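Project standup — Tuesday

K.O.: blocked on the structure for the chain from last sprint. Re-posting the sequence here as requested.
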Amino acid sequence: TERKKRRKKETDLVEEHNGHIFKATQYSIPTYCEYCSSLIWIMDRASVCKLCKYACHKKCCLKTTAKCSKKYDPELSSRQFGVELSRLTSEDRTVPLVVEKLINYIGMHGLYTEGIYRKSGSTNKIKELRQGLDTDAESVNLDDYNIHVIASVFKQWLRDLPNPLMTFELYEEFLRAMGLQERKETIRGVYSVIDQLSRTHLNTLERLIFHLVRIALQEDSNRMSANALAIVFAPCILRCPDTIDPLQSVQDISKTTTCVELIVVEQMNKYKARLKDISSLEFAENKAKTRLSLIRRSMETCTNCVRFMSITRNSVSGKGRLHRGNYPSPSSPVVVRLPSMSDVPEETLTSEAVLETDITEQQQ
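H.V.: unblocked you, prediction finished:
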């Protein structure tokens, strides 16, 4: 059983290169490889493009330089609905133009609209907008249509994909991951299956989930919770293959809805955690700015005080230099020697002299 599961997983793997969508296969008759021109034997691993049927060895599929003829067909280049996702993307555009156009408009004008994606628009307007997007997606003016019409057209585009975003090949893997008991194991299992998606499907799915998270965060205004969005989008992005019994597909609806809700809720938690980190960083930045401004003000006050003291000192030292020859410098202490009685001869001391010396001593 493990060998069969491994073999089935290898055949379900899809690789994209130069517009080709290569799927692993095995030929029952010898076939020539279109890249190296050698034979692909019966037991060899081979790859074939799902669009143009380009056949080659598995080791040659990523080496081929020939572009897919079906993807670059000019008759199909303008179509947007019912077309393989790989035809609508390129190396420069990882997400289809119609997805970016519709999601951006709904994000700007319908984020707070009550019942967005739950309420349907006018049937005639939906057909008109769909034809316009199929003819020339870039020139369509979405301002001419109601927001519910635009949301309905976007859901139609998802439903019309030949292979849904979460792919028929991985449908059973998603259901198996949802059957795990513990929530952590379920989350780990679902994300491990998501990692197996092709680059085009993964990029478009990430863009859609981020859009749904933004809508679910405004649940108070638009009345669309993560569960409500999962009920609407699960049949669009996680459809069961046509080979499965219809009764079985009805029984799987609860699992597919829970799977989509799980992805949206997990991304919401990550989004809220990032917003919390950003708010804490902004608070720390504002606090640091306040402290820096206080430090700058205190530094300016100190510099002003130092300047004032230096000006005052210069003016005082300038006045002291007028009689520099008679007075000592301001830095050295002034010592005044008082005349003592021993310095005066006894014969010259008179009563007047004694009186004068007493007065001068008192003055000094």
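K.O.: great, moving the ticket to review. The two ends are 119 Å apart (CA to CA). The chain has twelve helices and six strands.
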